[in-house]
Structure formats: C-alpha cells, structure tokens
Amino acid sequence: MSPTAGERQDILDRTRTVAVVGASDNPSRASYFVATYLLSTTPYEVWFVNPRVDEILGRPVYPSLAELPGVPDLVDVFRKPADLPGVLDETIAVGAKTFWLQLGLSDDALAARASDAGLEVVMDRCLKIEHARFHGGLHLAGFDTGVITSRRRPLRR
C-alpha cells in the first residue's frame, strides 16, 4: 500500500503547497527542523497549523486546516496517533491530495480510509528526508553539505 520511491518522488514533484500540522516553535522539535528545511530549500509554499502557536519562523500559524489561505496539496502530520483520525477528517474536508504521516506514524486502517477518500497516503516517512533524497541534499547525517565529490575522506585514527 505504501508508495514506491518513484511514486513518492512524483508526489513531491507535483506538490506546490504544504500544510505542516502539529508544527512547533520549539527548535528542538522535529517539526521545527523540517519547517526550516522546507522554507529554505524547497519551492513549496508552507503553511503551519497549530491552535496554540501564533507564529513560527516569522510566519503566521493557523489553528486548523480549514483556516488556511488556500488548499494544501500535501498535509504533513506531526501529531500523536490518537489525533490522526481527526487530522484525516480535516484533510479530506479541505480537499488536499496527499496525507503524509511523519516517521513513527503508521495506521493501515486510517490509510485505507484516506485512500478510499481519494488521497495519496505516505506513512512513516520524513518529508525532509524524502525531499532531500530526490533533490540531492541528503548526507549521511541528513544535512546538505554543499560538497559534491567522489573522493573518500581519510579515516581518522
């Protein structure tokens, strides 16, 4: 049921707008790191959704998907498993195309419901890692080093 690497790349290439549900203004949270990457490295228009935060990285934060300034192509979810059915309901209601669950989030019944509603579903994958994988920015530590070389580094002793 999970999309292949090529299908994930197609999803990312078609995407123009991303809503990050569960975005955090805490720099130690994964959603903050992903948000920083999306804003600095991708061409996506990025909207943040969190009812308890007003601003993240100088951008407004919306209390729900229904209050976004447009329809997101992709909804990237950073929420606890118990919250996922409600997030899926909102995703379907706004007319998004892709329901993307971050690392550690997977629910086959929820994925089947999303697919039945016409959504593409990606589970247990990081949007930042997948984008970097397909667009040349992935390094062993997950960062874009900006260095392109086939030369191996010498081993430290």
From TrEMBL:
Domain named CoA-binding: residues: 11-105
UniProt cross-references to Pfam families, sorted A to Z: CoA_binding_2
Protein name: CoA-binding protein
Annotated SMART domains: CoA_binding (SM00881)
Lineage summary: Bacteria, Bacillati, Actinomycetota, Actinomycetes, Geodermatophilales
Taxonomy, superkingdom: Bacteria
Organism: Klenkia terrae
